[in-house]
Write a structure and sequence with these properties.
The complex is a heterodimer of chains A (281) and B (293).
Chain A (H helix, E strand, L loop, with lengths): L3 H35 L4 H5 L12 H32 L4 H15 L2 H15 L1 H4 L4 H25 L3 H9 L4 H30 L25 H10 L4 H34 L1
Helix pairs in contact in A: 1-11, 3-7, 3-9, 4-7, 5-7, 7-9, 8-9, 9-11, 10-11
Chain B lengths: L1 H38 L8 H6 L3 E2 L4 E2 L2 H32 L2 H16 L2 H20 L7 H25 L3 H9 L4 H30 L2 H6 L17 H8 L8 H30 L6
Helix pairs in contact in B: 1-11, 3-6, 3-8, 4-6, 5-6, 6-8, 7-8, 8-11, 10-11
Classes of the chains: A mainly alpha (281), B mainly alpha (293).
C-alpha cells in the first residue's frame, strides 16, 4: 500500500521532473542551434551579400530587410497602440465600446499568422499595389504591424493603469487640464512599460515568417526602397530549409534570429529597470 | 474663452484617440470581409459539406476536399495536447506550489525564452533532430510524420499553457489550502483535491489557447509533416495541415481562380475555429480576473 508520505514524495519527484524536462528541452534546442550555427557564423556570413543561391557569401541583405520590415511595423503599430491604450485607460469608461475594442484586440492576437499573410497578400499586393509597390518591404512591414498591434496596445494599457492615482490627482489639483496631465504625468510614468512592450513586439515581429512569406523575395536583394522587394531572415531560413539548399546556413540564420530575440528580451528588461529606477529618484 | 479652448482640445484628442482605439476592430473586420469575400465563391461549385468532408484535393482536376488537411490538423493538435497538458499542468503546479525561489528563477525565464524562439527555428530543429530521431528509432523510411508535428507543437504550446495555469493556481485562495492542511490533508491530497479542481477553469482556458496556437501554427508544421495529401491513419503517417496547404499553394494559385477561392475557404475554416477557441478562453480568463495570455 502506498502511504500518504510516499505519495507526497512521488508527487514531488514528478513535479521536479516536469520542470527539469522543460529546462532540458530548452537547453537542447538552444544548444543545438548554437553548435550548428556557430559552424557557419563569421564576419563574412553576417556582413556580405549572398552568392550562388545563398550557398556562398553572407546574409546581410536578409538582416537589413528584417530590420527595415520590423521598423516599419513598429513605426505604424506603436503610435496607434499607445493612442488606443491612452483612450482605454484615461478617456472612457468601461462599457459596450471598450468591450468590443478589447474583444477585437484579443481576437486579432489569436488569428493564425498565415491568415495575416493571406490578408496582407490580398490587401497590399492585389488591392493597394499602386501604393505599396506590391510584394515590397512596406507591405511586409504593414502586415506585421497588424500582428503586433494588440500586444503593444495591451502592454501600454497595463503600464498606463499602474501610474498612481495620487500623481494624477496632484496634477489636477495644481490646475492642470486632462491633456496636460496625460502628457506630463501619465505618459512619462508609463514609459518604461510602454518601451518594454515595444521592444518585446520587435522581437516577435522579427521572428514571424508566415505573414511575410508572400512578400519577400527568394533571391538576395539589397534593399533600395521600401516600395521594392527584399529579403527577411525568417523567410530566407524557410527557403534554405524547405528547398534543401543548405541546412548549415539555415542554422546560421537561426542562430542570428535567436541572438536578436535574446538581445531584445534582455534589453527590454534592462530598459525597464533603468527607466523605473530613474523615475523613483 | 480659455475654458472653451481647452475643452475643444480635449474633445479633439478624445476623438483622435478613439480612432486609434478602433483600428484593431477595423483590421479584424477587414480580415473577415476579405477572407469571406475570396473564400465563399468556392461554394458556388462545391457545397460546404462536400468541401469539408471530401477526401480528395487536386486543384488540377478542380476537386477540392479539405478532409485530409482537417484530419491532419486535428491529429497533430490532439497529439500535442496529450503531451503538453500533463507536462504543462505539473510544471505550473511546481512553479506555483513547491518550487524554491532559485528553481522558480531558473524555470520562469526558461519558459519565457521558449515562448520567444521563432516558430521557423522550431521547425528547423524539428526537421533535423526530431524527424531524424523518429526515422532511426522506428526504422521508417521517413520520420516526417504526425508524431513529429505533435512533438514540436507540444513544445511550442507549453509556455502558454504553463503561464495561464500558473496564474490560475496562484489565484487559489490561501484559506482553501490552509483549511485542507488543517484537516490533516497531505500535500498530495491538497494539490489534487483542492488546488487543481479550484484552478480548473483557468487551466482549461490555457489549454484552449494552446489548442488555438497549435491549430494555427504554420512554419514548424510545414517542415515536418511531409505534406502528403492523404488522410493520416497512424502516428507515423505523413500528412498536410490546413495551414501548410495555404502556405504551399497560395503562390501558384491564380488570383480569382477556384483554387484561390478554395485556399481562402480553408483560411475561413481556420479563422472560425481559432476565433471560437479564443473567445471561449478569453471569456473564462476575463470572468476569473486572470492576466490574459
Amino acid at each position: 500500500m502506498i502511504t500518504a508520505n510516499t505519495a507526497d514524495r512521488l508527487l514531488k519527484i514528478l513535479l521536479w521532473a516536469s520542470a527539469f524536462a522543460i529546462i532540458l528541452v530548452l537547453f537542447s534546442i538552444m544548444g543545438y542551434v548554437f553548435l550548428m550555427g556557430a559552424g557557419v557564423m563569421n564576419l563574412e556570413f553576417i556582413f556580405t551579400t549572398a552568392k550562388n543561391n545563398w550557398k556562398e557569401g553572407g546574409i546581410i541583405t536578409a538582416i537589413e530587410g528584417t530590420l527595415i520590415v520590423v521598423s516599419i511595423a513598429v513605426l505604424f503599430a506603436a503610435p496607434i497602440g499607445i493612442g488606443a491604450a491612452i483612450y482605454l485607460a484615461e478617456f472612457t469608461r468601461e462599457g459596450k465600446t471598450t468591450k468590443i475594442i478589447r474583444l477585437a484586440a484579443d481576437s486579432l492576437n489569436a488569428i493564425p499568422s498565415i491568415v495575416f499573410g493571406l490578408f496582407g497578400l490580398t490587401l497590399f499586393i492585389h488591392y493597394l499595389k499602386d501604393y505599396t509597390g506590391g510584394a515590397s518591404l512596406l507591405s511586409a512591414g504593414l502586415t506585421l504591424s497588424f500582428m503586433i498591434l494588440p500586444t503593444i496596445m495591451r502592454t501600454s494599457e497595463v503600464s498606463i493603469r499602474t501610474v498612481p492615482l495620487q500623481e494624477k490627482m496632484g496634477s489636477y489639483a495644481l490646475g492642470a487640464t486632462k491633456l496636460q496631465t496625460v502628457k506630463n504625468i501619465v505618459i512619462p510614468g508609463a514609459l518604461p512599460g510602454i518601451f518594454t512592450g515595444i521592444i518585446l513586439s520587435l522581437g516577435r515581429a522579427a521572428g514571424e515568417t508566415a505573414p511575410i512569406v508572400f512578400m519577400t523575395a527568394l533571391n538576395p536583394i539589397t534593399p533600395s526602397s521600401i516600395f521594392r522587394g527584399g529579403n527577411a531572415l525568417t523567410t530566407t531560413l524557410y527557403y534554405l530549409t524547405s528547398e534543401g539548399i543548405s541546412i548549415n546556413r539555415a542554422f546560421g540564420i537561426a542562430l542570428t534570429l535567436i541572438l536578436i530575440v535574446l538581445t531584445l528580451n534582455y534589453s527590454a528588461r534592462f530598459v525597464n529597470n533603468y527607466l523605473t529606477r530613474n523615475q523613483r529618484r | 474663452m480659455i475654458g472653451k479652448k481647452q475643452f475643444n482640445a480635449e474633445a479633439i484628442a478624445k476623438r483622435t484617440l478613439f480612432l486609434f482605439a478602433i483600428t484593431g476592430a477595423l483590421i479584424l473586420f477587414l480580415i473577415v470581409v476579405f477572407i469571406f469575400k475570396e473564400g465563399l465563391p468556392i461554394f458556388n461549385q462545391i457545397n460546404p459539406v462536400d468541401f469539408m468532408l471530401g477526401g480528395e484535393w487536386s486543384p488540377s482536376k478542380d476537386v477540392y476536399g479539405a478532409l485530409p488537411f482537417i484530419a491532419a490538423t486535428i491529429l497533430i493538435t490532439a497529439g500535442a495536447l496529450m503531451i503538453a497538458v500533463p507536462l504543462g499542468i505539473s510544471c505550473s503546479v511546481f512553479l506555483a506550489e513547491i518550487a524554491p525561489k532559485w528553481a522558480r528563477e531558473l524555470v520562469r525565464p526558461a519558459i519565457e525564452l521558449l515562448a520567444g524562439i521563432p516558430s521557423i527555428v522550431y521547425g528547423l530543429f524539428a526537421l533535423v533532430v526530431i524527424v531524424n530521431t523518429i526515422e532511426v528509432s522506428f526504422d521508417v523510411p521517413t520520420g516526417e510524420s504526425i508524431l513529429a508535428g505533435s512533438l514540436i507543437l507540444a513544445i511550442m504550446i507549453l509556455p502558454i499553457i504553463i503561464s495561464i495555469s500558473q496564474d490560475s493556481i496562484e489565484a487559489v485562495p490561501r484559506a482553501y489550502k490552509e483549511g485542507s492542511y488543517a484537516m490533516g490533508a497531505t500535500d498530495t491530497q491538497t494539490i489534487t483535491r483542492i488546488v487543481i479542481p479550484t484552478a480548473t477553469p483557468g487551466i482549461v482556458a490555457g489549454i484552449i489557447l494552446g489548442m488555438g496556437r497549435a491549430i494555427g501554427e504554420t512554419m514548424a508544421v510545414v517542415l515536418v509533416l511531409g505534406n502528403v495529401e492523404k488522410i493520416p491513419t497512424n502516428l507515423l503517417d505523413q500528412g498536410e495541415a490546413l495551414t501548410s496547404v495555404i502556405l504551399l499553394e497560395m503562390g501558384e494559385a491564380a488570383v480569382g481562380s477556384p483554387h484561390y477561392n478554395a485556399l481562402f475557404a480553408l483560411s475561413m475554416i481556420l479563422f472560425m475555429i481559432v476565433f471560437s477557441l479564443s473567445s471561449i478562453s478569453n471569456h473564462i480568463i476575463a470572468k476569473r480576473g486572470l492576466r490574459p495570455g
